[in-house]
Amino acid sequence: MKPLSLTMSALGPYARETRISFEDVSQGLFLITGETGSGKTMIFDAIMFALYDDSSGTSRGSGSLRSDFAPPDQETFVELEFLLRSQRYRIRRSPRYQRPRLRGQGMTEQAATVELSLPDGRVMTSKREVDASLVDLIGLDKDQFRQVAMIAQGAFFDLIEASSLERSRIYRRLFNTWIYQDLEGRLLAAFSAARTNLTTSSSQLFMDLKRFSFPDWAQDLAQEARDLVAAKDIWAVDTFLESLEGLAENFKDKREAIDQRLEVARARLSESQARLDKIRQANQCLDQLEKAKGAAAQLEAQGQAHEADIAKLDAADRAARLVTAPYREWQQAKKSLEALEGDLEEERLSLDQAQAAYRKALDQSRQVSDQEAQLQALPGQMTALEKEMADLDKAMGLEDEMAGLDRRLQDKQEALTQLETRRQDLEARLVQEEERLAALAQVDSLLLEREREADKLGARREDLTRIQADLEGLEGSLEALTHDRARLEEDLKAWRAEDEKAGQAQEALYRERAGLLARDLEEGLPCPVCGSLHHPDKAVLSPQAPSREEVDRLLEEAESSRQAVDGFSRSLEVKEAGIKADFKGLLVHAQALLVEDLPDQPDLADRMKTLRLALLAASDRILTACRLAEEALGLARQQRDERDQLLARIKAQKADLAAQVPEKESLEEAMGALKLDKARFKGEWDSLQGGLSGKDQAQLKTDLQAMSQAYEALKEAGEKARLEEDRAGKTLAGVQASLRGLERQRGVLDLEAKRLEAGFFQAAEGAGFESLDAYLSSVLEEEERLRLQARVVEERSARADLARDIQRLTRESQGLVRQDEALEGQAFLEGETGIRSLEEEADRLKMQAALTQTSLEAVRQSFLSAVQAREEESLLKDLADLASGKHREADQVSFETYVQTWYFAQVIRQANQRLGQMTGGRYSLRRTEEAESRRARTGLDLSVEDHWNAKIRSVSSLSGGEKFQTVLALALGLSDVVMAHAGGVEINSLFIDEGFGSLDEHSLQEAMAVLQGLAEDNRMIGIISHLGLLTQAVDRQLQVKKGDRGSSLTWA
Q: Mind listing the domains of the chain with CATH numbers?
């Protein structure tokens, strides 16, 4: 960041608007000089106020910047234009101050304002957004900027005497080392999770062992499992797994023995089944033979009915096969002869009717011949009427055409008038819309700007939402930790009670031992404890004294409780450390989204609550900004759509105007053609009027219609008479021919019927039927015949099948004797019962074996998980201890501090180059490896090495001038390293306020030589001082003069 110009108005001692241009000193050293109180430091204050809404010194704020010399109506503001990464930025900021009212008497408060102009043309006016954007752009907040780029009056020694914690915060921002701090927190959280996983896995392992189901014959293994659960020894489970696998093999052996017994029992049962089946088959064969013989006797009794059915079926077959066809032909011929007699009678009636009709048709033909003359005259008369009607129609059509032409002429004239009006309207509207289009010329760039702003706000909103979710999870973890602490207190109380009880029992045991010794003491003999010969008050035995075993048990229980409380306490410490580390990393991410710094509160819950409230406020701000950005984006899109619609409308309007020219020409040409057509139609109409009779169209049509009807009636009557005569003649001839044919056909049918009758009787006699009745009685309906045939065939087949069955069963039953199958069946049932018993025993073994195998797999998997969890916990503990600086075999420095020490070493190396030059090689800075307390070691403390006496001492032991040299060298070194390593941070200007007064002439010359060397490296260095040596050494000077109306300044 490098200032280009600074404008101050009604600020401090500057009453009027005062502008300072730094263009000529953008690369080099310049001096700001003037009397005390003239306003030299106010220049630095103005730069800090413009950038950070604060002054250059921590002791001054922005609330007292209003000039006491300024007129009441003079606006107070600061405007700074600066160069950053080769791009220009402008910031204008006004503080809150009192001013006279514009109307009336009294004062009113002028609100603070800010306006940041970006290189892409965007302007930001929200204070929070501007402050956050400037910190993002410069890469430093106000406190860091004071220590790196603007060393204010009285702040020299703060740079070298800053605590390691403060220096760590500065380096975290400058060099982005928060990622290593975040890694520390993540490793600690991973270790905590691994420890929890180890506890869970171990508990699961011993729970699986506790749940293991052992058979009655393996109670020794069950006791061993209970001992393992009580001992909580994970590694002992590995050996016990071999015993469990042996148990599973034992189940397998028992199952094989049961299977062998089952195989023998099933073979015996199969033999019993074969014997039982043989007895059942023999008894069944004897039963079937008896049943077949009984059925044969029954069929023999029904023999006469069967023979009658056979004879009836034979007669029906002969009738159907030999007689039925001749009989049907004879009957059909008789029916045909009867039908022909009916047809002859009807044809005779038709002949009488045809003769009468023919005579009537001859009479009508003679009457029509008398009207032939009248029919010949009617066509000429009708033609004359039709011509007159056509002329009248044409004349009337010409009148309609001329009326239509008049209307079309009027329409064309109106269209021409409307076309002219529309052209004028289009031209006026086109001018207005082209003006609006010119006003929307920049809408694309505006839309792009609004979209970028909306995207940026959306990304910030997503980051904020993610941080809020993480914070909510941490608050839940902290609440759970609070509950665990309460439970720890309860466990502590329980342990203390158990410990006290064990102590009381132990004391009672000791007292009991003293009673045992006292019981055997005799007067005059020495006591084995104290040596006394007299025993006036001997200890007595207590009837309630505990045993040694009971005391040991109580002590073990108290010790077990103590270990459990101790382990629980350590797990809570790990959880708390993980929560703090996670919150620390979260706070680093959140600080980038917050406008204000959060207060440093000792209580973690309060800090979380403060961060949550700050995040809610930031969320409200971002939501408001997002809403405003969306509204602005929507307005820009509406303007873009309006622009696109204007372009389309303007194009269409121009096309419409261009199309109106040929349209107008076409209308004028059409009007000329219509006028010529009207004149031509008028001439034709005049010529037609001379040939008309005066009748109207209706009268002429009526006359023509009457003639036409008379003509058609006469013509139709003649045609009808001729046709009727012809038709009647043909009908009469046809009836006569048909009657002759029917008479011939009757003779033929009569002969055929007699022949077929003789054939029928001959066939009936040949088939054995003596008469027509005998034949008809033998004829059966088809359904009845089929039923009779089926009954005969079925009985015949049954007789044959029964005979075969009796013959077969007689052969098969030879040598067979009926036996009692109940006895063999009882033996078979007993065999089945034994097999079921063995199968149930096998199923029980199978179920127990499966349960044992499942439990074994669960224990094996739990053991593997516990071993893996133990290894992972050990590894993550080493990593977490190493990253957090707690590893016993490594330096007690956290990972982030270790990285920061590398940057710190680079800063010291750069600073020593300037410090050695300014001190003649006497002093060099060193990084202190040890702090006052090893546990507080950070690696970011400073010491100074005096090469003249080869001693290393604290920087606080330096004199005032030596401290200034050290501060100057350290500030310059920090600036060099930041520009070389910190991405996005560009510091190419340095402002120093006083401090040179503590240097002697030689030291001052050395310091100036260093600054001159820096100024040649594209840096701008500004110094505030009133030392005479500096005014002689620095050519470019900004002189500040104070007066009774305020201060002024000029470049010299």
A: 1-139+986-1052 (3.40.50.300), 176-272+849-890 (no CATH)
